[in-house]
Amino acid sequence: MNSFVPDAVDHKGNHADRTKTGGWLSAIQILGIEICERFATMAIIVNLVTYLVGTMHLPSASASNFASTSGGTAYLLSLFGGIVADSFLGRYWMIAIAATIHAGGTCLLAISTSFPNLRPPPCNPTSSNKCVEANSLQMGIFTMALYLTNIGVGGIKSSVAGLGTDQFDQNDDKEKAQMAHFFNRFYFVISSGTLLAVTVLVYLQDQVGRSWAYGICSASMTLALLVFLLGTKRYRYKQRLGTPIVQILQVIVAAVKKRKVANPSNDSALYEDLSQESRIYHTDKFHCLDKAAIITSKDSGIPNPWKLCTVTKVEKVKMLVKLLPIWATTIIFWTIHTQLAGFSVQQAATMDRSIGKFQIPPASLYAFFVVSIMTTLAIYDRLIMPLMKKYKRSQGLTNLQKVGLGLLFSILGMTAAALVEKRRLSVVRADRGTMTRSATLPISAFFLLPQFILVGIGEAFILSGELAFFTNNAPKGMKAIATGLYLTTTSFGMYLSTILVTIIRNVTGRNGGHDWLSPRINDGRLDYFYWFLALLSLINLGFYIVCAIRFRPNSTENSPKMNGAVVDTPPKEETV
């Protein structure tokens, strides 16, 4: 067996020796970055609203919007990080730089939460419990630290999974099997880091101090970065072949320039580079993009890729466009997910969280969400899938079916959340009628578990279906863009949450109306907002089912052989 990996190089640019580079040792050093990123990021996200409300004295809706926008920006930067990594830096340098920025951001967070001058004074209970909101300087420093961390998150997420899989040779059967295990362990690492964050680190934030907790985040990322750098000589690197975003822009620009040119009646009149080893045959979808491949009198000589594109390049863009309806209909799930780290944590902060003499931090209820994801994935992998293989002769649920189930469980989760909030508010009204009003309502926070568990089950199916759907149905050379699309659904879901909260506040609070999302959660009608999200998700599920039924991957049936060229098509698995 050849000791060199055919499509990888070592740190010096020479052919990578499989006996000296790659494998599990290298992959584990890379995974260390991911577990520390997840450890820090989730500890910040799930407990961010309680800090903004309790310490910085922001209104609850404003705090929720701030947290949603911050998280959305981090995931949106993942797409930008992927483009920069593929075009300029490479995955290794993107991870190294992003991890350094992440460690610096969490260090600044520790500093901003440690100095009394960088946060407003505590509320004065003798002045009708009025609180002084954080000023622009205090919020500015905190925001700068948080967004530095977000830049680090975006850079790490864009490249860590890709560099991890680069350590295994897909042309070697043994290493290909190891790479399949890498993906399973990658998701386990993500869940483990999250679980550790929402239990241990959240407890430290609430009981010891946020500056200590954020300092631990910075120290752990610094340590992981050192371990990562120690593996430099052992890593395998894939050479950059340009960036797919340029190919997409070339097709769009060429199609726009030729928008007035009539499409030819014969597909063979479209331009194709016959020297390519791998080509995609023409399809009858999105004819407006075909104009980029029309040969005109101005296209003489060497083709200008910004004026004339091959059919293969056009079809790659079409394959991405076909993913957009599914992409759009999964955004609402992440809007619902955002509520668990926002309003659901605020609910928990008002409820009885005691187990004996131990007080559970409000954000630690998120642990039940993480456990439900891990449990669902384990049950599906070890029980449901084997049963389906045995009795239905299938490989399990398709990716589209998994996503549909995820959307359904999110609706059930919001329904449960609305019912629990209605009950909590009834306790609030009853508590106000007593002579001894308590800061903690006499209702157990464990009533919130159904919404965490149901949405967690939904996310388990979304996690295992959505990313696989995008990567399986994306053309070769554009898998990174497909991964970026997957990550931006989370980002846009968080942004949509911010928009909805703003609209609901403006509409329901108009003309002295009862603001559903009042600055104090006990004065609002959060249950109405949850019902609204459940209804919106139900309508969205209907649209998703239509899009999923109509979706068809490129088929190799009746396709032209094109002089023996290999036809690049995704697997024919996606059905509802």
TrEMBL record:
Can you say where in the cell this protein is located? Membrane
Q: Which positions, given as ranges, span the membrane?
A: 27-54, 66-85, 91-111, 186-205, 211-231, 323-343, 363-383, 403-420, 440-463, 484-508, 528-551
The record ties this protein, via Pfam families, to: PTR2
An annotated Gene Ontology molecular function: transmembrane transporter activity
Superkingdom of origin: Eukaryota
Claim: DNA-binding is one of the keywords in the record: no
> Which keywords fit this entry according to its UniProt record?
Membrane, Transmembrane, Transmembrane helix
Q: What membrane topology was assigned to this protein in its record? A: Multi-pass membrane protein
Q: Name one GO cellular component term.
A: membrane
Question: What protein family does this chain belong to?
Answer: Belongs to the major facilitator superfamily. Proton-dependent oligopeptide transporter (POT/PTR) (TC 2.A.17) family.
What name does the UniProt record give this protein?
Answer: Uncharacterized protein
Which organism's genome codes for this protein? Answer: Quercus rubra (Northern red oak)
